[in-house]
Amino acid sequence: MSNDITPDEQNTNPNETPCPLCNEMVRVGLVRCWNCGSFMREDIAEAYRKMQENPAPMIFSPLPEDSDESAEEESRGSTATMTAYADRDDDDFELDQSVSVTEYEASDDDFQLAGGVEVSQEDQSTIPLAREESAEEAKQHAEEDQAASKQHAEEDQAASKEEDAAAAEDKKKDVSAEPAEDHSVATGGDVLLNVAMEEEKEEKRRRKGGRRRRRGSKIEGGIVVYCPNGHRIRVREEYRGAAGKCPACNVMYLVPTEAPQQAEAESAGAATDENQAAEGTETFDPGTYSHWFQNIKLHAVDPTKLKLKPNSLEKAFTTVDVAISPEKMLLLGLVKAGLLGGGSKDKQDKARIEIAQHLREEKEDAEIPAASVQTISAEQIQKLRVVFPTMYDHESVFAGVPVFGKGRIAIALPKQEEIKENQYLTFSLTEYRKFAEALQELHGVSDLGQDSGIPMTDEVRQVTCHYSEEKFDVLENENLEFYEADPEIELTLVGRQCQGCQLTVSEDSRKKERIGGKTGKGIAKAKCPKCNEKFGNISLWQIKQADEVADEAPQEEAAAE
């Protein structure tokens, strides 16, 4: 009987969707693929991985007072091939030497892909990459196995000697003992109960001191990898680059295609080459775009959903590269953002080189090999303005609230027709100084953020120590938040100032006079030597110079030795 459904209609069933791993058609709504078992949605897979990484703690009931805790703990031990077993004496069996307790042997059924099949980067993003065991780890595990085997052999030998001695003693007592009472009295109810209890205790003693399970012999050949949950798995060399399932937890893993030492060396060499290219070598030459800023934060803000809370937009951003020429400014999204962010550093460096070559050859902007491109003309560059910080809070769109993070500087971009949200570029102090300098050099913009209170140069003042009368320069505390938020600037504490009488004490003098204790933690409640009031917690800072950092490194190494 025909159901009037053609084969083409069956193949294009809207109730089915292809599996992202094996491309098999799966009914809509299923959590896992019926063919390969992979998750159909990445968010569910990520939640499952997190659940596997942080399992719920096991809860054990309290043991009876007369139970043997060590014997109970031993009975709860688990191996790779046994999940439950009857309560039997260890003397009844010995563990097969071919079974490994902590190391699993992957069979052909554990792999989803045949050996030699190359896995693309898209597939690797959904399959956790297993880590291959290094030579040092293999040597350490071999030494541990040898020591454990030796220890077990000594324990078994000692236990055997104890059992033989106990048996000989019991036999001697049986021969020499003479009945001191009648048979009917000796076999009374209380006497039999006591004998049963003694036998039960002896059974527990034998179980505790008897033979212990030995670890199986190490499987020879192949390579050792670790699944995402930390289980050691030994696989054959032919499965390098293939995906498999862990025999212990069924989590997908990918066998490395090469040894970790070689991969790290090649990765380090490639990173060095890319860094040299990005720093201005002959390979990285963007032509007329003489100023290039990497990984600048771009925030797209919907005014109707804006929350005026500190740091509310701190993590709501995408990173772009900003390239500036005398004719225009480009905002370049290097690679397409994925589930884990904007791509790896290697992909970004490779994209920079390709984009730079495109710009050097002066090709069309529409053909730039980037995930996203925004063009800001020279006329629009003249209209750029700083929206945070501002001189007066009521003039700010954000009412003086540091929504982008404390110490961040925000610039509003011109409105784009295809983008509904308002866009802002945010900078650290060092990034902003370089950006403003580039705009002034190429486009003559000299008043960007002039009235916003941003320190374009390091503003310092000279103070004198009350004890040593030494004079030293310190940063103005009004601008300190910009320096603290800048990852490229490192500050060093050089002094303290009394909040009442403005008395200044250098950090060296404070340590000698023990004001606030040895480390200065109690400085806020310490008494000022001049006004006898609480000293307060006003710190004085300087920018740590490069030579100071270089001098500290040998001192730290000497202290470590």
UniProtKB/TrEMBL annotation:
Residues 130-144, 151-184 have a biased composition (Basic and acidic residues). It comes from the Bacteria. Residues 1-16 have a biased composition (Polar residues). Residues 204-215 have a biased composition (Basic residues). Residues 1-20, 55-215, 262-281 are annotated as: Disordered. This is Uncharacterized protein.
